[in-house]
Amino acid sequence: MHILTAIPNCYFRNLEHPAVPPREEFQMGNRFGVSGVEQFSWKDLLDSFSCTECGRCQDLCPAHNTGKSLNPRRVVHDVKVNLLEKGGKPLIGPKGEGTSSEESLWDCTTCGACLSVCPVLIEHLPKIVKMRRHLVQEKARFPEELLNLFENMEQRSNPWGIAPSERGKWTSVLGERSFKPGETEYLFFVGCAGSFDSRAKQTTLALATTLDRAGISWGILGKDEICCGDSVRRLGNEFVFDKMARDNVAMFRERGVKKIVTACPHCFSTLKNDYRQYGVELEVVHHSELIAQLVGDGKLKAPKKAGQGKVLFHDSCYLGRHNDTYAAPRAVIEAATGASPGDFERNRENGFCCGAGGGRMWMEEQTGARINHERVKEALKQQPDTICVSCPYCMTMLEDGLKDQGAEKVRVRDIAEVMAEALNDR
Amino acid sequence: MNILVCIKQVPDMESRFKVNGTGDWYDEADLAYRMNEYDEYAVEQAVQLKEQLGNQPEITVLSIGADRVGEALKKALAMGCDKAVQVQDNDSARKDPWQIANIIAAYAGDKDFDVIFTGMQSQDRGSAQVGVTVAELLGHNCASTLVGFEYADGVVTAKRELEGGVKSVVKVPVPALVTCQLGLNVPRYPTLPNIMKAKKKELQLVPVASLLKEEAATGTEKLYPPVKSGGGIVLEGDLGDVADRLLGILKEKTTVMK
């Protein structure tokens, strides 16, 4: 069967590059998410018939590799079996052929490895998000730790639940840095991690001082900034995401924001790709791209200071696979240290998730080995001095993983920190 | 069966509070509001009781305050209450617990509520007086600080939290009023279809003047943050040295070593 359907399946692939979940219409009487096979789109169903069962997706899946319930190949297979049996079985329920378990749906980190490796371009990810939407929105059934997350997002517009008035506090050492409509060039969308997480705040400051050194005009929204909504969208809480996205888009329009820089790949991908569905075309750059460009343009003199020892670079899923950006962060490290960083065994398109994507950052990891431990062990084989990241979630996961493995002497640094440290040393 | 739930909308306790211009309450500017935590347990318990009785009881949810309390009422409706009452009062923060209880009792007086749920206290004022005063005014049986609730044959079996970790179990025949404490239940996350249905549920507006005939029994003289009385000390350096210094401080400034 797959021989017949695989070719049209490739032809009908989603043209939005990272499989951005479709929007939902919040009308009375609508169904939200997918609970039965008939609610999938025709493309979702065509996908299921195109699978050659080659197993590449399961080989690369971080959840499957660490002994969790999720197997992306099975998700697609179960959709097909369920359809062939005309929905006689529940689509979501006790694990069995034709049925995905709730546990397996919550295991997904949305890293996108399954999508990128599939030879017939099957889109596993949107199916999982659609089924999560049903569980969250129609049934309010989700791991209990998410109750707190959803409340924090709705009430305080950030996952930590810290008062919104604290958001701009990190600028206290720099002075007033508000975005001024018509004057400021770049909106620095700091993001929740960069504003509230004490470790990520160091990256924020490093980026701010690097941009200052390059003479870039930037400003922040301060207490008016709200979460981009990445986690809630991937977790299937589309209703809350939709409100956040509309509020953000309205604010960008009101303040005349055109260019945005952010140090978080989740903010980056959401603002750049997901918000397109809300009718805005923003010029969003990840800080790796902007710093690399500033070095290229000669606005930042590449310091080329060795001082980080042996450096490995860990690809963030949402910068790499979801947005095809592999060269820029490596170029920043090379400009800062004078040498291109080493790679993990699994890198770039085949990179292995840190375990925090898809809202997993806010959930307990109870089954199997920990994904961040796997990734850290992979790094330790090469005995690095520094692991470089380009994402605040990866930072947390790898630092925690190193601590758990008793390898705290290995540092984790964001690319902006590496650049700022090298610039300060000159 | 008729059920009443009384809820209050309070500021998010994560907010930074400032004293207002008249020095008798907090400044409302820049505050985000939500349903009082203890009242969420009250709503949840009311909805669980309704479900237990085959969805037959009708739940009315009541809140006193300015129009912003509509948001808290909407959440209660989305959680499963049937209709909402807003007692319109832009100056509810200046009403004392006696007046608030009288407003609720005046509303509930002729409506034959079998069970009334309130939070144990509000997160902002924390007087813990309103629920029990309403019960007194209506002549209902009352149990406060509930961490367990069962209902059968017209009797509420209430598990109450007392001081020092002690619990007591009391049986309260209806009509009864109970006040709800942390640990009673986990308030549900409203589903999207229920959020949408809530928009179509009845919201009745009642002017406060039609219910309140009582003068305040207490008034707020002054509101101010506590005076800072010394900060903490951080001891740093060699571990043995730090231990010696700590011992010295404990001996000199406290009685724990005597």
TrEMBL record, chain B:
Does this entry carry the keyword Zinc?
Answer: no
What keywords is this UniProt entry annotated with?
A: Electron transport, Transport
Q: Which Gene3D superfamilies match?
A: HUPs (3.40.50.620)
Molecular function via GO: electron transfer activity
Name all Electron transfer flavoprotein alpha/beta-subunit N-terminal domain ranges.
23-215
What is the similarity comment for this entry? Belongs to the ETF beta-subunit/FixA family.
Q: What is this protein called?
A: Electron transfer flavoprotein subunit beta
Q: Which organism is it from?
A: Geomonas paludis
Lineage of the source organism? Bacteria, Pseudomonadati, Thermodesulfobacteriota, Desulfuromonadia, Geobacterales
